[in-house]
Each structure stands twice: as structure tokens, then as C-alpha cells.
UniProtKB/TrEMBL annotation:
<keyword id="KW-0479">Metal-binding</keyword>
<keyword id="KW-0966">Cell projection</keyword>
<keyword id="KW-0206">Cytoskeleton</keyword>
<keyword id="KW-0963">Cytoplasm</keyword>
<keyword id="KW-0349">Heme</keyword>
<protein>
    <recommendedName>
        <fullName>Cytochrome b5 domain-containing protein 1</fullName>
    </recommendedName>
</protein>
<comment type="function">
    <text>Radial spoke stalk protein that binds heme under oxidizing conditions. Required for the coordinated beating of multiple cilia maybe by functioning in a redox signaling pathway.</text>
</comment>
<dbReference type="InterPro" id="IPR001199">
    <property type="entry name" value="Cyt_B5-like_heme/steroid-bd"/>
</dbReference>
<dbReference type="InterPro" id="IPR052320">
    <property type="entry name" value="Cytochrome_b5_domain"/>
</dbReference>
<dbReference type="GO" id="GO:0046872">
    <property type="term" value="F:metal ion binding"/>
</dbReference>
<comment type="similarity">
    <text>Belongs to the cytochrome b5 family.</text>
</comment>
<dbReference type="Pfam" id="PF00173">
    <property type="entry name" value="Cyt-b5"/>
</dbReference>
<dbReference type="GO" id="GO:0005930">
    <property type="term" value="C:axoneme"/>
</dbReference>
<keyword id="KW-0408">Iron</keyword>
<feature type="domain" description="Cytochrome b5 heme-binding">
    <location>
        <begin position="9"/>
        <end position="116"/>
    </location>
</feature>
<dbReference type="InterPro" id="IPR036400">
    <property type="entry name" value="Cyt_B5-like_heme/steroid_sf"/>
</dbReference>
Length: 282
């Protein structure tokens, strides 16, 4: 079995990363890991400091503490960290409504009359509203930093039942509608470490592991149930697992499935070079 990094995430999987030490957010279909960015923001403070010494001099005592003026004004956190605190408040949630495409939502300032970014929950960088020669483009903003992307968030989740015909056990999983059968197998792996010892079928037909549930003819009928007033979970499609009488844990090293058929072809080294148009690796 080739274990791959998870590509698709459900909103529930993003929501559990909701602390400052483990912060994920979803933005325009992508899942961003903001943990390292928050750690960097909390270390920075651009405010002018004042010391706690009663007598101001060139030299401070060992017990001197630098105070940020934001605390004196009654803020519980530094004003320079306002956006970071807002990200923590939205940890595990979706931020797409902050943006229009890859840019912040813009509005016309009621006093200045210039078009500026609408930072409802804090500014992403220090930049004045009035046009100024000090304006500078933001280099590599956090919302466009591809190094923070850990995956993609699904447009819609769907339930699926997986029934083991050998043991009679049934597991119901919430999966992403964009995930292939192979990716769903990775979700099922904690429940059965010998998945390759089984044939995966739906209504008696073998499933193509590189196709999604819909592409394999497994419909999502929840909208139809809602239209006629039935509960969405009144029927959940079930994938049947049939035991193949072996204890295979991993497939052969060179294991291929044909593009157009459900037949398997095990290619030895060098044999598949002439038939790569019909054989694709799992």
C-alpha cells in the first residue's frame, strides 16, 4: 500500500485545529497552517516602549520592564498583534469572506474617498488610508504563501458505509466528495490494516480505485431525500468488502490497473514500457 499525504479535508477536520499552538484556517478552498506565522507575530512588537523605572536615565535597573503603550491604553494585547489575535479567534474556521479572489475586499473610505482594503478585524500590514509615498507592496502576504498550504477543503462532504462481509462489521465514514476510492481507503485504514486482502465492490461491481464515488456510480441522494421530506441519512450507500483468502498488506511493487477495464496486470520490470498507454500505476 502506497501511503500518500492527505489531500482533502472536511470542515470538521479543520475545526479541531483551533488553538494558537495548532491553528488551521480555510481560505478559498485551501487549508492553511498558520501556527508558525502566529508564533512569529506574537514575538514581534513595533510599538515604542517605555520602561518601568521611576527615575528615567540612560541606565535601567535589573528589574526594569519594558511596557507597550497598548497595555496602558487598556488593550489586553498589543495593537500590532490585532490581526494575529483575530486569526486565533477564527482558528479552525473559513476566512474566504475576508477576500475577493486573492485580494482583500475593498471599499471606499467615507472620509478620504480613496478605495482601500476593508480590514474589519485588523490590518494585515501597517499602511495608511491616505495616499502616500510610504505605501509599499506587501511582499509574500500570508494568505498567498504556498508553503503554508497543507491541503484543500472539500466543497461538500458525504457519508459512506463500508461493510466487511467477512467480519460483518460496518463503519460509516464522512468523506470528501472529491476523494478517490484509494484516498477513502486511507481513511478506512485504522479500521482494517489488510485492505488489500479484500475486493471493494458496490452492487456487485468492482470499484476503480483512482475514481471518485460519483465516478464509480455511487450516487449522493441526500438532496432528493430532502425534497420529499425524508431525513438525509435514511439511506447511506454501502461499499462491500469481500475477502480474497489471503493476508496481503501491501500490493506488489509493480502493480497496475488498466485504464479501460477492471482487469489487473502485474508488470515485471521493463515489460510495461511498451504498454504504458493501457497500464496505469495505482
Amino acid at each position: 500500500m502506497k501511503f500518500t499525504k492527505q489531500e482533502w479535508y472536511t470542515p470538521a477536520e479543520v475545526a479541531i485545529h483551533n488553538t494558537a499552538s495548532d491553528c488551521w484556517v480555510s481560505l478559498n478552498g485551501k487549508v492553511l497552517d498558520m501556527t508558525s506565522w502566529l508564533e512569529e507575530q506574537f514575538r514581534l512588537c513595533h510599538c515604542k516602549k517605555s520602561c518601568s523605572c521611576q527615575v528615567k536615565s540612560w541606565y535601567c535597573g535589573d528589574d526594569c520592564v519594558e511596557y507597550c503603550p497598548c497595555f496602558k491604553r487598556g488593550f489586553v494585547y498589543c495593537d500590532g498583534k490585532r490581526l494575529a489575535m483575530t486569526i486565533v479567534a477564527y482558528a479552525g474556521k473559513d476566512l474566504s469572506h475576508w477576500f475577493e479572489g486573492d485580494e482583500w475586499v475593498r471599499y471606499t473610505h467615507p472620509i478620504v474617498g480613496s478605495t482601500t482594503t476593508y480590514h474589519l478585524h485588523g490590518h494585515p500590514a501597517r499602511q495608511g488610508v491616505v495616499p502616500s509615498t510610504r505605501w509599499r507592496p506587501i511582499s509574500k502576504p500570508w494568505w498567498l504563501d504556498e508553503s503554508r498550504v497543507v491541503g484543500k477543503v472539500t466543497a461538500r462532504t458525504r457519508p459512506i458505509r463500508i461493510t466487511n462481509s467477512l467480519t460483518g462489521s460496518t463503519i460509516t465514514l464522512e468523506v470528501c466528495s472529491e476523494e478517490t476510492i484509494y484516498q477513502i481507503m486511507m481513511r478506512y485504514l485504522p479500521h482494517n490494516s489488510h485492505m488489500m486482502s479484500y475486493t471493494w465492490r458496490y452492487l456487485g461491481k468492482p470499484l476503480r480505485l483512482n475514481k471518485t464515488l460519483a465516478a464509480n456510480g455511487i450516487p449522493d441522494e441526500r438532496d432528493l431525500f430532502s425534497e420529499v421530506g425524508l431525513p438525509e441519512n435514511i439511506h447511506i450507500p454501502a461499499i462491500m468488502l469481500y475477502y480474497d483468502d489471503d493476508l496481503t498488506v501491501d500490493p506488489p511493487e509493480n502493480f497496475f490497473r488498466t485504464r479501460d477495464k477492471d482487469e489487473l496486470c502485474i508488470c515485471k520490470e521493463g515489460e510495461c514500457k511498451e504498454h504504458m498507454d493501457v497500464c496505469v500505476e495505482w
